[in-house]
Amino acid sequence: SCSSPRLTSTSFTTLDGTILTNIAYVSQFKLSCDGEPADIPLYAEVGGKPLSVVKSKETNEYVVSWLEETKKAPRGNFEIKVYDDEGYAAVRKAQRNGEDTSAVQTVGVVVLYHPGAYTGPWINSELAAVIVAFGVLYYAVTTKTKLEA
Amino acid sequence: MDNNGWIRYPAFNSSSGPFTMDNWLKICLLVVFAVATTGNEEATPAKLLFSKQILNKYLVEGMDIVIKYSLFNVGGTAALDVQVADNTFGPQDFEVVGGQLKVTIDRIAPGSNATHVVVIRPSKFGYFNFTAAEVTYLPSENAAEALVGLSSEPGQGAIVPFKEYDRKFSPHLLDWLSFAVMSMPSLVLPFALWFSSKSKYEAVLTQKKDK
Question: Where do the TM regions start and end (chain A) (predicted)?
Answer without folding.
Answer: 122-141
